[in-house]
Amino acid sequence: MNGRLSWWRSMAGTKDMASCMQVARQLHAYLDGEIDDVAARRIARHLELCRRCGLEASTYTEIKSALVRRGEPVPDEALERLRRFGEDLVDQPRDESGDETG
Amino acid sequence: MFSGRVRVASIVEEPVIVEDERRRQLYRACVLPELDVLLRVAMTMTEQRADAEDLVQDTLLRAWRSINTFDGRHQRAWLLTIMRNAQINRHRRRRPELLDDPGRAAERDVTAAAGSAEDVVVGRTFDAVVDAALAALPVKFRQVVLLVDVDGLTYAEAADALGVPEGTVMSRLHRARRRIRDRLAAADLAPRRRRL
Questions:
Q1: How far does the CA of residue A64 sit from the closest CA of chain B (Å)?
Q2: What residues of chain A lie within 8 A of the CB of B23, using their CB?
Q3: What is the pTM of this model?
């Protein structure tokens, strides 16, 4: 794995690239936008050049997309009922002021 | 004498009125804009629409009662924590035998939800297999996937919603996605997992 990576690095002319091992460790956080920009750029660079890691990334991206498609819209009528409930709560005179911890 | 009484009353009441107004403003600015996310997360946590709405109502009420303790920052994290506690209380009321370990109900549901490998292979499209694989996941894995991938929460927000450390969210998420991927691979819809 390291030999292949050295070859890529020499081809790409950059050291600013994550290793396969680092990608494996951080791939999910990368796909979820949970890592900083510098780390994300290093991983993106690796994914452009490494076919196996790129394939891994696109598999999980497809899974994420399928899950997003699965999401149902929040029912408008329920949302409206809750909005009214919340508004009524703050509009009524203050009577229950206990400091309840969440 | 009468005017004196009015003056004393206004001195005492004015700060109370201002404080009440501040609470209302804080609630309108920080709680009501999160309704959509709260309902989405509640639907994931309860898996029943009617229960979800009740849970959000409960959360709104608790948030209003504890608005004095809220510093106005990270409202989503604050609300998700309130919702988690509300959910635990609801769960205890319904299933008193789970008082010591509310997580046990989730564990028991696992076997009921798990589908066989054959069920999964029957689903021919990518989405159908993902759906079946999701249904076959243990509840605590499925909830993390739904919170992050479907409801769009960050790892930190999902951790607040579930009352677990962020690292636990990450590890459950990775394992859950790997299981979904393995089901897809079994149906020849994804490459097999490689080992480094």
A1: 6
A2: 90
A3: 0.75
